[in-house]
Amino acid sequence: MGRxxxxxxxxxxxxxxxxxxKAGIExxxxxxxxxxxxxxxxxxxxKSLKEALKKAPKEVxxxxxxxxxxxxxxxxxLPASREDEKRIDLVGKGLQAVIEDPRFTALYKQFTQVxxxxxxxxxxxxxxxxxQYAPKLRKKEEELARRTGRQVQxxxxxxxxxxxxxxxxxxxxxxxxxxxxxxxxxQALLLFEKQFSL
Length: 198
Description:
Elements: H1 7-20, H2 22-43, H3 49-55, H4 58-73, H5 84-98, H6 102-148, H7 160-194
Helix pairs in contact: 2-4, 4-5, 5-6, 6-7
C-alpha cells in the first residue's frame, strides 16, 4: 500500500512550480512598472525615463523598457488638433529613452514634420470644404428665412449633409497620412526589438 502524504508535502509539491516562475512574475511586474512610468512621463514630462531605467536592476530592464515602449508606441498617431503636437513630441522623446538608435531619432523627426504638414493641410481642407459647401448652405438659410420670415444663419457643422461631406473629405486626407503613421510604428518596433537580439 502506498504512503499517505501529509498536507504539508502536498502543499509543497503544488507550490514548487510557483517558485520556479518567480522570475516570470518579476518580469511581469517590471513591465507593469514600465507602463506606469510611461503614463507618469506623459502626465509630467519632467520625469526622466532614462533615470528610472538607470536605477532599475539589469535583469528587469528589458521588461521595464517593454512596458514603456508598449504605452508610448500606442500613442503614435495623427493629431486631432495643434495641441496634440506637444504630446507627439513628448512620445518621441520617451521612445528615444528606450530605443537607443539614432535612426529612430531621425525617423521621428521626419514624422513630426509630417504631422505638422498634416495639420496645415487639415486647416486648408477645412476652409476649402466650407467654401465649396457655402452656396448650398446659403440656399438652406434662404429657404429657412422664407419659411420662418426671419433671417437665419446656420452653422455648417449643424447640417448633417455638410458633416457627411466634411467627414468624407477629411477621411480621405487622413488616409493619405496613415501610411506614415504605420511606417513609424513598424520601424519603432523593429529598432526596439533589434537592440534585444544583439
